[in-house]
Specification:
20 strands; alpha/beta; single chain; 9-stranded mixed β-sheet; 10 helices; FAD/NAD(P)-binding domain; 409 residues; 6-stranded mixed β-sheet
Length: 409
Amino acid sequence: MKNCIIIGGGIIGLCSAYYLAKEGHQVTVLDKSDMSDGCSYGNAGMIVPSHVIPLAQPGMIAQGIKWMFDSTSPFYVKPRLDRELINWGLKFYKHANQSHVEKAMPALRDLSLLSKELYKEFAKENNSFLYQEKGLLMLYKSDAVGEDILHEAKAAENLGLEVSYYSKEEIPSVEKGLNTNATGAVLYHSDAHLYPQKFLAFIKSELEKLGVSIQLNSLVKDFEVSQGKIDTVITTKEKIAADEVILCSGSWSPEIAKKLKLKLSILPGKGYSFSLKNFKGGPTIPSILCEGKVAVTPMGNDLRFGGTMEITHNNDTKINKNRLKGIVNSINEFYPDLDIQIPEEKDTWFGFRPCTPSGLPIISRNEKLKNLVIASGHAMMGLSLAPATGKLVQEIVEGKKLSVSNQLF
């Protein structure tokens, strides 16, 4: 049995805690907040084996430059003179090629499919978090975007995922909830969804049963390190001896890593969401509105919209109305019968997705510190990949054969 200290109480940290505690390890989770509102709470709740193409891909640089001149666009890099941003951008450029994509696709598929199976195991035990396998509908309006979506779908099919294609006239046969202005659609049968807040409540209750200690408002200030090993984690409240340290603080992981004299190339990608409670007459299948990259997820009686990826910094806490406007415009363009309004600030959630320049998460033991495992950089797929990441963390800690090869992670 090892004394495992997990830094970060988001969904990656909680799933890591679960699988470690299940194997009998003593686990303490440290989080600098009260864990009432993190990146895991406001996301779209999608489990997406379909998302096999990383953010770093051919054409993304050119498209990103075009979008930078549109304040309502789905992807935006907030310009600033910053060494970390410049270095991240150069690394992103190096990864944005077909060779990288071809290596990444099967790795992302395997990680996603493992996660889905683990979610199904949770749901068999207690489906209080409304896990459903309805697939994911990719709706598009323009021929240019449609061509890209069809290309991605064929690539997913080549990886063994089940895909269906629909013309404009055929879309009502699959999305019976309401009319759409889409000219075509692709349905990924591999995908699923759940209600994020309800899953987090479920996993916390499981951790309580397993005796996991969750320390709220516990900021990591420093570490005591000797002979290539972390001996002690020093927080604002106490010193904690550690056999293993798992760093999964999302966009704040680089700040923690600096205290260990390590560099992590992760930048926050700010995203927004809002939910309509007890909403009737909305879509019945989770969807992506492809032109605006807006996610639409029915969650029980509620309907959630989310979108935008704004590469920024952790102190950027202002809600950008133009980015919200872009999301709402996309919704109303695709669903003419909905008439969605821009939400009030109090009803708008935003969070920071941890983005690596490769578009792939980091799930590995650190080379310099032999008892440090890093699990971060999942971008918009944190919820989707969380159980698989937690399982890999447990296997890494125990030195077991990994369920999924992590050579790229």
